[in-house]
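Risk register update: the risk of archive-format incompatibility is retired. Evidence:
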Amino acid sequence: MKSNHLLMRTQSGVVLVIALILLAILSMIGVAGMQTTGLEEKMAGNMKDKNLAFQAAETALREGEAAITLLTFNCTNGRYFMRDANCDTFADALEVWDSINWSAAANPPRSVQAATNLPGLAERPRFVIEAPMPGTSSCASLTEPCPAADIRYNYRVTARAVGGSTNAVAIVQSVVQSSTPPP
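Archived output:
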């Protein structure tokens, strides 16, 4: 009997303390794992939103490229001359696409709303087309007069779109060369 009594006196509950420490460590690892999962979920949602905005901007860009020869460039509704947002024939300091109000509510409208409506967008994509300034063109020959068939005009099309929220914005741009002068 005496030996059992001595063993009980030497035990002081160290196993309980170690078990509680291990439980606390495992709890911290679990909480950190949950936070990481939540962050990854937000990142995936943002990536989807950004991709949706990019796809919508690409769609509007293709629509703008197809409309180049159909438009009259009068500085309204998305039709401008290069670096001339106010149609005074003087080059502005800012590019047109960087200085206009892209909002659909702008009065007068400063950009063209794309006809294609993709599902899941917060707003419809919009585009602007910039024609070369009147009288400017490019020619293959710099020394001889340029035949009319060799004259090329560079049109710049810029499209802007948002994703499922207005926080994800994509702006894409292309330059299209055409033999058709600005109408």
